[in-house]
Amino acid sequence: MASDLRQKTFSGMIWTFLESFSLQLFGFVQGIILARLLNPSDYGLIAMTAIFFSISHTMIDSGFTNALVRKKHHVPIDFSTVYVTNVVLSFVFSVILCLVSPWIANFYDQPILKSIMCWNALCMFLQSFLAVQGTRMRIQLRFKDISKIRVASSVLTGIIAIVLAFLGFGVWSLIYPTLFGIAIKGLLYWHYQHWFPGFHFTWAKFREFFSYGSKLMVAGLINVTFNNLYPLVIGKYYSAKDLGFYNKAQAYALLPASTVTGILTKVTFPVLAKVNDDVVILQNVYRRMIRQSAFVAFPIMMGLAALAKPAILLMITEKWAASIPLLQILCFSMMWTPLHVLNLNLLQVRGKSDLFLNLEIVKKILFVIILLATFKFGILYMAIGEIIMSVICLFINTHYTGKLINVSFIQQMKDISPSLLYALSMGILIYLITIAIENLWLQLFFGIMVGAVYYISITKLFKSPELEYSITLLRENVFHKKH
Fold this sequence. Notes:
2 domains; 21 helices; mainly alpha; 0% strand
């Protein structure tokens, strides 16, 4: 049982990593092309609407999908009830967003937002027909099939976006392709499982899932609302162009962080749920996960911060230069994201939705205080505030999750400190290279090469167990070689 679970866990991690890496690589290339074709203000317009759709998605899900994953034994009516709930709520919120779109357009003084809101609302409604299909595959730990579906749909959607941008569709190049992506994903879900949840609904099942999911929904609402306050404030008090610079810097900072976070979200929650009854196993799995996530995430974020200038100027040209300092600052904020995800997943697995909610409330109060203290001084100071907030959240999350499984905050910091020191020293070395070399292409090339060689060498020199473990996982799951 334990051996089979271990194999499924890390096989899932490998497949999800390959999926995320493929998507991020293609998204990276796609983003470069689109950023060269489109204007910063186009990205700013999309970012202005983000808060409204993030809130709607959270209300629609209501924590039901996590409640489904957490449940140990499922019957068809479980999936069907969640499915009906998703579709009905999606329709309601899509209509509401279309109706309020004129007020949102007036708030930002951007008339085009009315049409953008209605198109995105339609996409949100159509996406609700696919939510439960993906959840069922997660429960079955079918990460390989999920990876194939996501890669295929994302690549085809990205190609369509590039074609539309070449044809001069402007901001609509970021909207229309979503409709194609939904259709492609729907066909692939049917191809891989030939399953439809049905339209059956019972209030008993609804109440069962809502009793668990409601607190997560409230916590999620708080989280997405406050996470989108920065674009809201920048869009209101600054320009669409300024928001575009911030949005692009945030997107690049999120690129590596979201790869690791995506793996942790999809794989660790169902895995932690399966070992939830054994605290010792749960403790060991959790500590292994935070060490591995830090080992992978920290050097990538440090390297990106050090190479932000040549990367931005070479990839998306001088017109995006204002996003360089923002990207450097946000890397230090986003590097902790995978650890946040692991901690929050652990709270949910242990059934501590009350604590989850209370912690979110406390953290968001601190978030508002920091935002109010920084936004008048400019976007750079707002970004620095994000670093402060991320570190505070790390302390709060690890303190309380540590109590649940007897792993203290100090112990967790000791677990990740070697990777942090290796990554910081690597980042400093790369930055010194960019100072010594004038040519941007050489800065980028030698920065990446020297940084990678240094990180692997220093972790090997100090006999990092995470390096050895990563190599073992690759051999077992990719090359199928077992010792």
